[in-house]
Design a protein that fits this description.
This protein is 41% helix and 17% strand. The chain has helices at 8-30, 45-60, 76-88, 107-112, 125-132, 141-154, 172-181, 196-201, 250-256, 267-286, and strands at 4-5, 35-41, 64-70, 94-97, 161-165, 185-189, 205-208, 226-229, 233-238, 241-245, 259-260. The two termini are 31 Å apart. Helix 2 packs across helix 10 and helix 6 runs parallel beside helix 7 (172-181). The chain has a six-stranded parallel β-sheet with strand order 1-11-8-7-5-6, sandwiched between helices. The protein has a three-stranded parallel β-sheet with strand order 3-2-4, with helices on both faces. The chain has two domains: 30-117, Leucine Dehydrogenase, chain A, domain 1 (Rossmann fold, 3-Layer(aba) Sandwich); 141-269, NAD(P)-binding Rossmann-like Domain (Rossmann fold). The chain is α/β, with parallel strands linked by helices. It binds NADPH dihydro-nicotinamide-adenine-dinucleotide phosphate and 5,10-Methenyltetrahydrofolate. Residues 142, 165-168, 170-172, 189-193, 196, 209-212, 230-233, 247, 267-268, 271 line the site of NADPH dihydro-nicotinamide-adenine-dinucleotide phosphate.
């Protein structure tokens, strides 16, 4: 079997198109322009690339983009003061603090100082609790993007066996919550999981969010399963070049799987599209307006 390729890039373009329509309607009907503030501390080159493409896509969707680039040695107090200003600014509907932060900063404290209503990453403890109890929240962008792709491919996810490899707060855990919300039978695997290959082999849906290049190979995959590869790993491609690979070994997995997301062009573009979607949702909620359909979980 050769897997169907789940085209995250094309799906993300559709989501951004929906976002742009909603933005136009907010402007025309209510004179409101959704605004997203992105805070980057330090000069990590990969983070700079993401922040640039977030800013570009925010503007393309018709929204306001506010970029705050702070020195790597910015103090905790200075960062908290900036977040306080953004929390109070009515033109800012979404705030994203790019992670990881430099080691001298307390990420938990910083994230939890964001107004939960503006926490478009969905990392604030209030949003984590709301998601865990099935209440309306801001949903983390990467898992939300994966859920949209899965719903589009499968229709209903009810009763399917889902295995999430990785238990981070930003991907693995919220992914598991969303799959549970859609009535999957969910297993969360991690570095201490025994017989990982056997666990993965039972899955109808595999979500790999491990950070290990090409770790999941085709012999781990149940024939016909859906493979969602969250991993983004830059590896040496020889001759001084690099290339991006996922946490799944694409060619061997694609031989066995029913469907698979590529890297690049899979989950990555969905993450940014969902960030824009969350910003519009936050803007509607802040203004007491009906929120757009199909852009949240
Ligand atoms: N496409 C996108 O938009 C995004 C992509 N990413 C990518 O997704 C990947 C995961 O990111 P993130 O969740 O932040 O990573 P973390 O490093 O925070 O978490 C990795 C998880 O994988 C588990 N793990 C590590 N090694 C193994 C192993 N050998 N076997 C089983 N489990 C293992 C860890 O287990 P333990 O807890 O036991 O240590 C941990 O729970 C990365 O490649 C990252 O670049 C991340 C965010 C967005
Ligand atoms: N507060 C916070 N929120 C995040 O959501 C967040 C973060 N910090 N820190 C870093 C990770 C990583 N991340 C990605 C977003 C888009 C692509 C993406 O668009 N990738 C393209 C390829 C891009 C390239 O060529 O480098 C693709 O997969 O097709 C990847 C990774 C968001 N993250």
């Amino acid at each position: 079997m050769t897997a169907q390729v789940i085209d995250g890039k094309a799906f993300a373009a559709k989501v951004r198109g929906r976002v742009a329509e909603e933005v136009a309607a907010l402007k025309e009907g209510h004179g409101i322009t959704p605004g997203l503030a992105v805070v980057l501390v330090g000069e990590d080159p990969a983070s700079q690339v993401y922040v640039r493409s977030k800013g570009k896509q925010t503007i393309e969707a018709g929204m306001n983009s506010f970029e705050h680039k702070l020195d790597a040695d910015t103090t905790q107090d200075a960062l908290l003061a900036l977040i306080g200003q953004l929390n109070a600014d009515p033109a800012v509907h979404g705030i994203l603090v790019q992670l990881p932060l430099p080691a001298h900063l307390d990420s938990e404290l910083v994230i939890n100082s964001i107004d939960p209503a503006k926490d478009v990453d969905g990392f604030h403890i209030s949003n984590v609790g709301l998601l865990g109890t099935g209440q309306k929240s801001m949903v983390p962008c990467t898992p939300l993007g994966c859920l949209m792709l899965l719903r589009d491919h499968h229709g209903s996810l009810s009763g399917l066996n889902a295995v999430v490899v990785g238990r981070s707060n930003i991907v693995g855990k919220p992914m598991a919550q969303l799959l549970l919300g859609d009535s999957c039978t969910v297993t969360i695997a991690h570095s201490r999981t025994k017989d990982l290959t056997e666990v993965v082999k039972r899955a109808d849906i595999v979500v790999a969010a491990v950070g290990r290049p090409e770790m999941v190979t085709g012999d781990w995959i149940k024939p016909g399963a859906t493979v969602i590869d969250v991993g983004i790993n830059r590896i040496d491609a020889g001759e001084g070049k690099t290339r991006l690979v996922g946490d799944c070994h694409y060619d061997s997995c694609a031989e066995v799987a029913g469907a698979i997301t590529p890297v690049p062009g899979g989950v990555g573009p969905m993450t940014i599209a969902c960030l824009l979607a969350n910003t519009v949702t936050a803007c509607c909620r802040a203004n007491g307006l009906k929120e757009p359909q199909g852009l949240t979980a």
